[in-house]
Amino acid sequence: MTFTTKLKEEISKQVPSDVEARFIIEAYLKYNALINDKIRITIENASVTRYIYKLMKRIFSVPINVTVRIQKRFRVKQIYILEINEKIPYIKEVINYNKVSNLDNDEEIISYLKGAFLGIGNVSNPKTSGYHLEYILNKEEDAIYLCSLLNNYFLNAKVIKRNKKYVAYIKMSECISDLIKMFQAIHSLFEFEDTRIYRDHKNMVNRLNNCELANQEKTIKSGLEQLEDIKYLEENDLLFLVDEKMRLVMEYRKKYPEVNYQELADIISMETDYKVGKSGINHHFRNLRKIKMEHMNKNGR
């Protein structure tokens, strides 16, 4: 079962107030029903079908024909078709068909967004892909309108055109979480948040590991360069230019070429009478490089 299916089924098990039911159905029918001289709705989810059926009965008090069909394309699944043949002008008036809906408060707006999501909404599986929630619409003005409703709650919604459809979408995980919370889908919210926390923690660990690996590579590269500097001084009889402390640091670098400055300083301080810190090690190797470069410049190398 996909995360979208879980979320829609959780919403469909809620018991809305009369006001909520009115605006859930308004959005659902406007975006997911074929309306002319009759109303026809095609639904793939049994739980959502029962939910929409009950709400339409409750609001419109009309007979609703239910047809179940077996679809065998790609995979076998049941398709539910709801048809209404009575009170069509009345229903169009109730749902503001071909008009902009008049939404006055949070209860109405959130119910409207919830109904639209049940009909045309999708959310990606937070465990396997990037965060993405979307409403897929036929008309650009409808996508812009839904986007404006979402942005009433600072959800950073945007609109794009995809093939012949228009999509109002949210990408930020925090915003998707906020919308699921507004839908009062607590189980889906917990699953989404658990996954988000796990992924964020995993990404943080990966970044730290990558940073540590990069630091190790940098340390090894520096150690090899310093060994080359030491070798240059030895081959060109330049050791008389360095004092005893620097010679000690050079000897320990040859013994421990893979350690960083702090580790090298700790080893020297622990094994000898010379107490040196990270900055001291750095100072010695800068002087070592300076002696090498001055000799190379002097001899035209």
What does this structure look like?
This protein is an alpha+beta fold. The protein has two domains: 3-184, Homing endonucleases (Endonuclease I-creI); 201-298, no CATH class. Helices cover 59% and strands 14% of the residues. It has eleven helices and eight strands. The protein has helices at 3-12, 18-32, 46-60, 88-94, 106-120, 140-151, 173-182, 186-235, 244-255, 261-271, 278-298; strands spanning 33-35, 39-43, 65-71, 77-84, 121-123, 133-137, 158-162, 165-170. A four-stranded antiparallel sheet has the order 1-2-4-3. Strand 3 and strand 4 (77-84) form a beta hairpin. It is rod-shaped and about 105 Å long. 27% of the residues are buried.
User: What is the string of helix and strand elements?
Assistant: HHEEHEEHHEEHEEHHHHH
Largest sheet: 4 strands, antiparallel
Secondary structure category? alpha+beta
Strand arrangement, major sheet: 1-2-4-3
Look up the CATH topology of the largest domain.
Endonuclease I-creI
Mean pLDDT: 89
Number of strands: 8
Q: Give helix % range.
A: 55-70%
Radius of gyration: 34 Å
User: Would you identify the regions where 5 or more consecutive residues have pLDDT less than 50?
Assistant: none
The structural domain count equals 2
Strand content: 5-15%
Name given to the CATH architecture of the largest domain: Roll
Q: How many H/I helical runs?
A: 11
CATH superfamily of the largest domain: Homing endonucleases
- Assigned CATH class of the largest domain: Alpha Beta
The outline comes out as rod-shaped
> What distance separates the N and C termini?
70 Å
